Amino acid sequence: MRRTNAMVVLALPLIGMSLMGCGLTPNAADIEAFKKPYEVNVTAEDYVLQPPDEIEVHCSKVPEIHMQRQRIRPDGKVSFEGLGEIEVAGKTLAEAAELLEKKAAELYTLAGEHPIDVRVALYLSKVYYVLGQVNRPGPKMYTGRDTTFSALAMAQPNVLAWEQRVQVIRPSADKDVKPRIFQANFLRMARNGDTSKDVLLQEGDIVYVPATIFAAISMKIEEIIRPIARAFSGAYIVQQGPGREAAYYGRRSF
After folding, report:
1. Digit-coded pLDDT (tens) for 60-71
2. Which of 83, 100, 114, 167 has the most CB atoms lying inside 10 A of its own CB?
3. Residue 173 near residue 223, CB atoms below 8 Å
4. How many domains does the chain have?
């Protein structure tokens, strides 16, 4: 065990340097890529349907589809009795309604400019992510009005979270364009009502909550100690012999 302790002491400076150097580098100016809640009413004006979104159709003139809900299948289609299959994936609500109108017009006389109304019953295809030191990590359903604060409040940062150094990341699909990253102080938002960095999230955004320096170091130390401790405990049992193994574990439990 003395050898293990010595190794941990020697490793501490290296762990500290690696933790300080790793991770993404926030840029204060990158917040300009994000919109504030009071600047716009919505973040996605033309919602594009994708599996497994669920749509609801309103058209009192066509009983086969009126008030019918359909979840978009993995092949991107929905199907209605009498009208057959219709591919709606990749379409806006207006475009999906237009496709339904063309199908329905073959069987019914439809009056009015927009006789069929397509609505989203469940938004399931668009998500953002909250990761790191939170009680509820993972993908979250995107609603169009999700903010940094609401995302963190729902995910609930845990006791290891560095709440003052939350990173808000907008990934880039273009290899020539860097992701936009800025730092937000969730603790200041919650305690002081500082909403200067409470921005609207978009589909695919990432909210990352890092561990505090001490928490990160302790987790790194645990990663180092655990396999070493197991190796030493196994060697000790072998040295004691099979007849003394039970006695060793009995002393260990105390």
Report:
1. 888 888 999 999
2. 100
3. no
4. 2
Which of 46, 202, 75 lies closest to 126, judged by CA? Answer: 202
Average pLDDT over residues 213-230: 81
**Residue labelled with tokens 């006389």:** 109
Task: Decide if 234 is inside a domain.
Answer: no
Tell me: do 83 and 205 sit in the same domain.
no
Asked if residue 4 lies in contact with residue 232, where contact means CB atoms within 8 angstroms, the answer is yes
Q: Is residue 245 part of a domain?
A: no
Rounded distance, CA 132 to CA 205, Å? 14
> For 227-238, what is the mean pLDDT?
64
Q: pTM to 2 decimals?
A: 0.71
